Amino acid sequence: MRNKLILAAEESSLRKEPITFEIGDTVDVHQRILEGDKERIQIFNGIVIARRGTGMNENFTVRRIVSSEGVERTFPVNSPKLAKVEVKRHGKVRRAKLYYLRDRTGKSTRLVERTDKVEKAAK
Q1: What percent of the chain has pLDDT over 90?
Q2: How confident is the model at residue 122, as a pLDDT?
Q3: What integer is the mean pLDDT of 81-97?
Q4: pLDDT of 92-111, one tens digit each?
Q5: Neighbouring-strand partners of residue 50
Q6: If DSSP states are collapsed to H, E and C, what string results for 55-122?
Q7: Alpha-carbon distance 34 to 31, whole Å?
């Protein structure tokens, strides 16, 4: 259980609209990048393999394959640098952490698409 004072202090920094995605989803993470005095959006797409923490300490890890090499990035959920997280696909998983994908290569890294979420989104 967290201290009520800490929760009250963190409340002002939390997102107004929480990001909704789950483990196994294929997402595009739009991140604001500052280059000098200019700001641009950089997109990192991949599969969400982990989500951990609560409140201001909540993070998620996205994994993708770039030129046959696995790349993982961890993003804070409540960071002002995140412009948006766009869900492309819903993966069907039975684990809370998908670290087993690190050992797999090629077609074995694909996840079966979850149909119940796709049908709800279409309605």
Answers
A1: 57
A2: 64
A3: 93
A4: 999 999 999 999 888 888 88
A5: 61
A6: HHHCEEEEEEEECCEEEEEEEECCCCCEEEEEEEECECCCCCCCHHHHHCCHHHHCCCECHHHHHHHH
A7: 10
Q: Which residues pair with 79 in a beta bridge?
A: none
Quote the pLDDT of residue 116.
81
Work out whether strand 82-89 and strand 69-76 pair parallel, antiparallel, or are unpaired: unpaired
Question: Which residues touch 100 (CB under 8 Å, ≥6 apart)?
Answer: none
Contacts of 54 by beta carbon, 8 Å cutoff, 6+ apart: 2
- Within 13 Å and on the Cβ side, how many CA atoms surround 104? 12
Instruction: Assess contact for 30 and 85: CB atoms under 8 A.
Output: yes
